[in-house]
Fold:
Amino acid sequence: MPRIGIPFLVVAVFVVTATLTLHEADTPAGPLVEGVPRVIDGDTFDIGRTRIRLFGIDAPEREQTCRGKDGKALPCGQQATAALLDRLGGNSVSCRQMDRDIYGRTVAVCTVDGADINDWMVRTGHAVAYRYYSLDYVGAEREAKAAHRGLWATRFEMPWDWRHAMSER
Structure:
């Protein structure tokens, strides 16, 4: 069996390290999409022909309802949609693509006037952290839950569970 000398190992480590460093440096942040959005629901909107799904969060579907303390149905999906619409206020948003989902949508972190929209939706209780994809908004969710904001002031089904139940009907 041939012996590998120290100079060879030093060169090999250098090449591997340089390759990894170059790979990291060559990995750009995702594309930027900017413009005035047309809101679809509490976590989705269009900018021009690009459909944007907010990264790391999940809002109730437009048709989804929750139950108030009195047991009455509340249109929490419509409320989430309205909250996003109000927050954006017809302003231009800037979205940094993080991924593309199975439906071809751009999954992005978006800002309006420099503020993270994804975080705002969760922090105000209009959406939840989508832990399956990211832990970025778990702290914002804990804050909303502790303060009983939005969804957390109701009895509600997690949006992913609601969608699953609807698909089985």
